[in-house]
Amino acid sequence: MKKIILITFLFFTFKQIKAQKVYSVDYASQADVKVFVVDYESQADLKVYKVDYSSQTGKNDGNWYFVDYASQADKKIYFVDYSSQADLKIYFVDYRSQAGWKKTSKKQLMY
After folding, report:
1. Into how many domains does the chain fold?
2. How remote is the C-alpha of 74 from its chain's centroid?
3. Helix-strand-coil percent breakdown of the chain, rounded to 5?
4. Which of 2, 78, 95, 110 could anchor a disulfide with 31, C-beta 3.0 to 4.6 Å?
């Protein structure tokens, strides 16, 4: 019984840590988080770096890997047209070291 509880606990802990595999959905109703891409870094809640491999994703640190299928994603996102519609405002950065949260109050959206 203890093993089952431990395995379940570890599974959900691991699932939380690796919440950076994202899938872009076609409709807002399918999304876990609505995202708006801002023009300036200063406007962003999160600075995002698109990694090349799923193994490069981090612990909710802004390193995103876009998967091919919704079933592979930990979070489904929808890109909105206006910032007022967004749950989260992001800015894409050029280097992995630049990625990270600017507003930690929104961090729970990606867990």
Report:
1. 1
2. 8
3. 35, 25, 35
4. 78
Per this entry, what is the length of the chain? 111
pTM: predicted TM-score of the whole model, two decimal places: 0.79
Nearest CA among 14, 16, 13, 8 for reference residue 110: 16
Predicted confidence at residue 15, as pLDDT, reads: 44
Neighbours of 81 (CB within 10 A): 8
Phi (first) and psi of residue 31, to 5 degrees: -90, 150
Q: Please write the tens of the pLDDT for every residue from 79-103.
A: 999 999 999 999 999 999 999 999 9
Neighbours of 12 (CB within 10 A): 10
Evaluate whether residue 111 is within a structural domain.
no
Q: How many CB atoms lie within 10 A of CB 93?
A: 17
DSSP structural state of residue 85: G
